[in-house]
Amino acid sequence: MPPQQQQQQQSALGFVLFILMLWVIFPDSENAAQSLIVSDLAAERLKRCWSALDVLNQTRWGDFAPPVPRDDGDDNDYDDEDGDSGSWLNLTGFRREDGFEWNDLERFREKGLQLSRYAIPPVQGQQLWGTGARLPLWANASGTVHGEWVKTPGPVHRGYDSYNLSNSVPEMHWIGDKVDWARNITGGSGKMYVLLEGNSTVTEYEQLPDEHAPLAGGSIRNVKATLQIEDSKGSHLNWEMRLWGAHWPREGVILLTTTSEKFEGIFGLPHLTPSADYFQSSQMLLNQTLAHTIVTKQENRYMDQNAPWSSEIESPSYTTHPYPHCEFVMYAQVQPPSPQDLGITDPEPQGDAVANLIGAMESELQTPQGAPVGRIPGLQMSAVVYSPDCGFFLETKGPPDYPPGEARHLSGLKKEVHLHQVKTWLLVFALVVFLQVFLLKSQLAESYTPSTMARVSFTTASIMVIVDGMTFTAAATWVSSAASTFLPTLVLMFAAFLSMTIGGSFLAKIHEVQMPETRDRRDRNRQGNTGANDATTNTQPHAAELEQQGDTGSLLPAPVTAARPGPPSGPIIIPSDQDIDAEIADAAAAVPLQGGAQQRPAQTAAQTFQSIVGRYILLSLGISFLVISSTTWYPNVRSGFLNLCAFVYLSLWVPQIYRNTMRNCRRALRWQFVVGQSVLRILPLAYFWVKEDNFLYAIPERRAFLLICAWLWLQIVVLAAQDIVGPRFGVPARWTPEAWDYHPVLREDNLEAGGLPIGLVAEDQPGLRSSTDGDSHHHHHHERKRSAGGGHSTTRAIDCAICRELLEVPVVKAGEDATASVTGAFARRMYMVTPCRHIFHTACLEAWMRFRLQCPICREELPPL
Ligand SMILES: *[C@@H]1O[C@H](CO)[C@@H](O)[C@H](O)[C@H]1NC(C)=O
Ligand SMILES: *[C@@H]1O[C@H](CO)[C@@H](O)[C@H](O)[C@H]1NC(C)=O
Ligand SMILES: *[C@@H]1O[C@H](CO)[C@@H](O)[C@H](O)[C@H]1NC(C)=O
Ligand SMILES: *[C@@H]1O[C@H](CO)[C@@H](O)[C@H](O)[C@H]1NC(C)=O
Ligand SMILES: *[C@@H]1O[C@H](CO)[C@@H](O)[C@H](O)[C@H]1NC(C)=O
Ligand SMILES: *[C@@H]1O[C@H](CO)[C@@H](O)[C@H](O)[C@H]1NC(C)=O
Ligand SMILES: [Zn+2]
Ligand SMILES: [Zn+2]
């Protein structure tokens, strides 16, 4: 690399790092500058929270009664009539002047009750839900569920122009309140994901008498949920939000709401419940827990200025620059597990049997003691989401409106089962990575010499190391917040670390071996620019030099990377008996020799490898950044991007195929390595691309996965073909640089050109033999010429100089046509002919060439395989 270019690259690298650092530091410093104002704002907000809590404390059931729209008249003029203006709360969003679409509250309650009554089938004609009786339900609804939703628009159109935010929330400076609000669901249907986390303690309370039905069963806990709504048909966006609320475990009812500057949802939540019993219990619970939260916030107001119960998942900037979004209220009913799922065959299980079984399962999940509870069925819920300001309903798809075969509301796993699954798969992944390390180790044991190392494609090895490095980084990042998945993540991190470091050292060695190659190519290019008019004149002196050194035997065995002697200074001897073409090919293939004079100190090599590593780290940072930000992209774009990433990743054998072809090398890596790595690296992908209920709830894409599999298979087939029929089979000769063909077709009529290897030349051509066989004193070969019974080729025999066993080679007779058949290719695989026209067993010479790139007989340099 020219120093100038290198400097430019380094300064570019530095610039990118600088930007990254700025990006990391900047938001913090901004926060620090504003924290005084922000803490004032936070104090202001907490004051408002206290007065809202006061309202919650002092109101009674029925205090919030927005007018019910009449079916006959115009919906909009209900409040102009006397006596029907309803009653309102002094809470933001619940006031009349806020203009929310509360007329549909009754409809929302009705839909919720419908869901609940349908979920619990009546026993002997008697409705069980809402009576406070013991129901066969999960008591802890913590878990993850997902399913489809359908949108029902409200009767009145609501747009951003229906509200005057500077009127209803004068304290805030709103941004973007005059465009379509965020979280505005515009599509007709889509998917939603709910992550529910319940408080582990249940608060008991005294239930109201029967006339206040439906009853809530006497216990309540607070829950929070992360709701993700995929609006793939409308705005093509994913909206993610946090909701807070209460869960009545006995009846399986969950009521959640968003809270923001323009909607004090959590304080008004009890007024949205189905009945007085629910109201009283939630008012009591919220009175305690909300006060507790506000007090804590007040104590920490200089550290933590985030709004309490904020519906934003993570956005500190929201505190200072709020933008309006649609508010949501969610009513969910936990469904009883079906008797089949519980493994109960009795069609009419008696009394509390089912409830007892479920209780046993839950306590086993809570504190595993090995009780025989069988398989834990999944968590099922039905839900209705109501947006009081944007005016629409989202209902989960399922019975009774849709047949159970089509959709079953929200289904998923309880938290403990989900965690168990995550842990298991993390361990399986770690095992896969360990097996990768094992394969890598055995490959390292195989290619530990420079000549074998030179065959391995640097890019192929890089792809593996980059992905392992990203796995390691992901695991290391996750491990700090992994909680109960800590140990499996640690194991995965360790495995990925091993894979990354061993792969990295392999990469470093490959780089060390192959670096002279690229430099020489550059040098050659530079030479080519100055005087490439005749390639023969460039290479000939060099070939002569080789010949000279080979004759005197002065060239000591040395690794390819070692420094070479400078250009020849002695007389140039062009041997008359050499095949000039073969010499040129030899010189072209033996490139490591050529640039020897410009050898740089080893230090430069280390620096370049470091800069490569630096570039790889930046690359993986960039990819990780894209992958993380892709969660907010349009689903189609995201899945296309992820498929593309997988495709590029699993094209990892392509560089190896290219390198094999360019260097005319049949096989660089062990078969176990190629097949094993392919399988192991596609397995984690298979989990997400094929398995329906994977723990990330990623949508499977089987077609893309099949394509990727086929592509990987094709690469392996090409690698196999390169091994069997030759690396340049079917590749036009002019696409590839010339390289020495170690398995040439041996033709008798090539004799004049000196084509047949030494020792195979028949005795009846003494002139030729004596001139070529200059160094025959090295080996005592005795030729036996045998005719192969009138075929178009004869077989001749010679002793292999390495193992001293007989080597039989087919020789095409003069004038015969040597078709390049596959069987011929197989036969030619048995022997190897060196540029110095010595012939050996393939196995013998390959084993030799692992250690020396020198002819065992005449010590001439051999082009690498
Ligand atoms: C309202 O607050 C007072 C004082 O904190 C408390 O005694 C009372 O029980 C609360 N009322 C309700 C309905 O929770
Ligand atoms: C509503 O509450 C605010 C304080 O949050 C208070 O200033 C206002 O007077 C109250 N309005 C009514 C009608 O009670
Ligand atoms: C929500 O989207 C609909 C359809 O695009 C639009 O008519 C309505 O005004 C939007 N509502 C808000 C509050 O932005
Ligand atoms: C919104 O409310 C503010 C304050 O009450 C008022 O000045 C403004 O005119 C209102 N804007 C509209 C469009 O009604
Ligand atoms: C869980 O519930 C208890 C009792 O109701 C309450 O004191 C505690 O703050 C709650 N924890 C959380 C995280 O909400
Ligand atoms: C599950 O519910 C039981 C009783 O309702 C409670 O004791 C336990 O702590 C809960 N566990 C979790 C993780 O919420
Ligand atoms: Zn041999
Ligand atoms: Zn030789």
From TrEMBL:
Compositionally biased intervals (Low complexity): 528-539
The entry's keywords: Membrane, Metal-binding, Signal, Transferase, Transmembrane, Transmembrane helix, Ubl conjugation pathway, Zinc, Zinc-finger
Compositionally skewed regions (Acidic residues) per UniProt: 72-84
Reactions catalysed, as given in the entry: S-ubiquitinyl-[E2 ubiquitin-conjugating enzyme]-L-cysteine + [acceptor protein]-L-lysine = [E2 ubiquitin-conjugating enzyme]-L-cysteine + N(6)-ubiquitinyl-[acceptor protein]-L-lysine
Biased composition, class Basic and acidic residues, residue ranges: 515-526
Membrane protein topology class: Multi-pass membrane protein
Domain RING-type positions: 800-859
Pathway recorded for this protein: Protein modification; protein ubiquitination
InterPro entries named in the record: DUF2921 (IPR021319), HRD1_E3_ubiq-ligases (IPR050731), Znf_RING (IPR001841), Znf_RING/FYVE/PHD (IPR013083), Znf_RING_H2 (IPR024766)
Biased composition, class Basic residues, residue ranges: 777-787
GO biological process, one term: protein ubiquitination
The keyword Signal is assigned to this record: yes
PANTHER family noted in UniProt: RING ZINC FINGER PROTEIN, TRANSMEMBRANE E3 UBIQUITIN-PROTEIN LIGASE 1
Task of the protein: Catalytic component of the DSC E3 ubiquitin ligase complex which is required for the srbA transcriptional activator proteolytic cleavage to release the soluble transcription factor from the membrane in low oxygen or sterol conditions. Required for growth during hypoxia and triazole drug susceptibility, as well as for virulence in a murine model of invasive pulmonary aspergillosis (IPA).
Official protein name in the record: DSC E3 ubiquitin ligase complex subunit A
Organism: Hapsidospora chrysogenum (strain ATCC 11550 / CBS 779.69 / DSM 880 / IAM 14645 / JCM 23072 / IMI 49137) (Acremonium chrysogenum)
Organism taxonomic ancestry: Eukaryota, Fungi, Dikarya, Ascomycota, Pezizomycotina
